[in-house]
Design brief:
Helices cover 33% and strands 19% of the residues. The chain is built from five helices and four strands. The chain has a four-stranded antiparallel β-sheet with strand order 2-3-1-4.
Amino acid sequence: MTTPPPVLQEATSATLSKLDSALLNILVKDGRASFADIARQLGVSRAYARARVQVLVSSGVIELFGAVINPEKLGKVISTFVDIRVAPAALEAVSQELADCHEVVSLYIMSDLQSLHIHALTDSMETFDAFVRKRIFNRPEILSVDCKTLMTRVKNRRGGARL
């Protein structure tokens, strides 16, 4: 077994060790991996693996453990990316209203502070059309819309970033 560092210091982006990165990659692939499995893969003790996970959680590096859902299995087969330019004074209100819609699975305010990047999932083009007609079209604070529907998923980030 590899000898772990003697001090379980707080984990931050500046202090992530190669061992922490490897541990995080294990959890990204399988968030239900046991401490024994993690320890075996890293060559450390189970107690050390548990302690490291606890440090990563308490320091905010690991935000949560959750399930990754396949939207197609739930009938959400239309994946659309929408870029919206909004009058800056209305950015917060529009972004919050859209974030509250069940069709919106992710929403980002972009660095120009007037653009929103949205990923929407719907069961049909008709459902997506109804969403944009109700929530996006005919609103004076929305200045422009660019919309693209996903054709083929080549690489998909499931469970978080790879480190």
